[in-house]
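User: Can you predict the 3D structure for this chain?
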Amino acid sequence: MLNIKETNLKFGAMNRQHERITRVVIHHVGDPPRDVSAEEIHRWHKENDWAGIGYHYVVRTDGTIERGRPEEYVGAHAQGFNTGSIGVNFAGNMDKMEPTPAQIESGAILLADICTRHGITPTPSTVVGHRDLMATSCPGKNLYDILQTLRGKAIWYQQNGY
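Assistant: Here is the predicted structure, written as structure tokens:
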């Protein structure tokens, strides 16, 4: 069952999505290499004069999924690729840590839900790592290496329920 923790974050001005969602972009927090909340990321992004957290969801190390930016608004997570995409951030530095089993399961269920609602099949062209779109190490080696596992689990949840 998908359970998203509502954060009720306050945002500045944002643009509404005008295109159909066709892609999910996977990220990691990077540094600091620890569990980080959507609220903390929101604060960081606001300190950079952004409207607020650029990611639509944060998957915490205990598997909790927190809402970031509402889906109806364009994210700020992959410059040039934000419109028509949903940004999912996994807490931690996935170059230094492994995604937890709880993150993998919750992340797969979240991907299944996003993809189902937007008519997307989780493939390498629709569920991508940030590095697939631009020069960055994000979402970290250890998360990037299991993206196909996440896609496969998401397909399983789409077919069998979540």
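The first strand starts at residue 4 and ends at 5. The chain has one domain: 4-8+17-81+92-118+130-160.
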